[in-house]
Amino acid sequence: MRIEDYAVIGNCETMALVGKNGSIDWLGLPRFDSAACFAALLGDGQNGRWVLAPDNEKYSVTRRYRGDTLVLETVFETETGVACVIDLMTTRDSVSDLTRIVRGLLGRVAMRTEVVVRFEYGSVVPWVSKSDDGRTQFIAGPNRIMFDAPMPMEGEDMTTVASFDVATGAEFCFTMSWTPSFKPIPSKLPGLQALQQAEAFWSEWASAYKPLKEWTAPVLRSLLTLKGLSSLETGGIVAAATTSLPEKIGGPRNWDYRFCWLRDATFTLYALIGAGFLDEAEQWRDWLLRAVAGDPDDLQIMYGIGGERRLAEYEAPWLAGYEGSQPVHIGNAAAGQIQLDVYGEVLDAIYVAKKAGMPERDATWPVARSLVQHLATIWSEPDDGIWEVRGGRRQFVHSKVMAWVAIDRAVRMMEEFGMEGPLAEWRTLRDEIHAQVCEQGFSEKKQSFVQSYGSEILDASLLLIPMVGFLPPDDPRVIKTLAAVEQDLVHDGLVMRYDTGAGSDGLPPGEGAFLACSFWLVDNYVLQRRYDEARTLFETLLSLANDVGLLSEEYDMPNNRQLGNFPQAFSHLALINSAYNLVHYNGPVHQRSNRVAAEP
Fold it and tell me: Shortest CA distance to 526 belongs to which of 594, 468, 599?
């Protein structure tokens, strides 16, 4: 199964990957970052999965989401008939439910279901027994799954299986319910009741969407995906539902993305506010304030869903890796890196929220002020950069630009909203950072801004220079940098983050084109009023989504396949914002760069 062959279902607590073959190959319970009970995605069937599909290899597949929901419908057509499987997730008190409904549409189809539960990322075989109410119970340590099937299930080679026929008009409901093993066994959940609840939840949420004149469907699907990656309880939004899907097949660039990155903060607010989801925007802002609260010297680049700070990284050698891509990582050591750009993201997010009129929190300005005061003492130091390189700290240009953003947004809040602070001092500091970046970050030889001071390597993060308002789009240095990025980093029409073959990140070379960076190129074209090129590239990027509108982190154009963790919030955020930039003359990129677009 290629990455794009998966769709997702979720309940705003966790997310499952469902393949075109009817197999759920990834699911952590009860949270996104919980240990997976289905981990076949990164191993094989014996690492856990749930197959529900025709008992015949000869079938065709079509699938869709049912309306504006995260309820998936997969239609299997065989030689003898047509059947569909409806997949969805819901939640109730301390219970996570996954429901699968099989419906006969035409003729008769022989179906088979195979359930392999393996807790702790496919490494723990549970004790399997029958409960008094007829359900199958899987239990190991703190985890318990109750499996409710409409027919008897049998054990076969460490797998729980059943075969059945579905005829026209027939319906079979399967439900899997997770609870902590030390809590009472949950009651049964009727499948049709779960379906009604899920469809009502998603449809009601989507009704707040402010549709665009163009690209309404892909933008709304991206927003639904973003909502699916968010925590209903905490307001945090994880970067992706998976860990260790590779940036290069067979390579070691495999990381755990089931955490919340500060770099997504401002992009997220613009996307949610522009689309009309103000409650979610406020919840994200509040999560951000809680996560970064405390000693500013302890600021991290990412946090757990609840704001957890210890995200220790280890390898799972019992998993073979997606298509042999090892190692499989659990946790992310980059949480301990120093990245100066996150200060800019946090201050910009606070500024954007204030501009949008969000209710003020008592701690907002004190937190912002303490972060800026600390940044003033460390901004000139080297850091690990936006891409979390593991090849040593440097004076990354993007990091310095975002340090400037942090000071600039603090100054703006004092100027525009009367916040108290050392205005003259911070204005001077803002000018000092700006002058240093322009002097040391621009290469006369390359005629471009570069990745770090003294280097000649380009970096796609340089596309953010005009987008955050550091320099105007018509500045000659911006125009030359854009031309250099187009020449050196655009391969097969998409943007690479940087040249991994230059040995700049401490890892073996090779990865796909980074989709968010390609959307940033769209935004730069908009700022340059190169509207035809912007639309063409945007349409190309839309075409890379899979059949249900989902994008991963990267794309391999030569092999026409998605790469990296899936679905990727950063990619979908960039899609949403680029769409608004193209449709509105005062889109997110115009607001963030503090420049109103002229009509094309």
Answer: 599
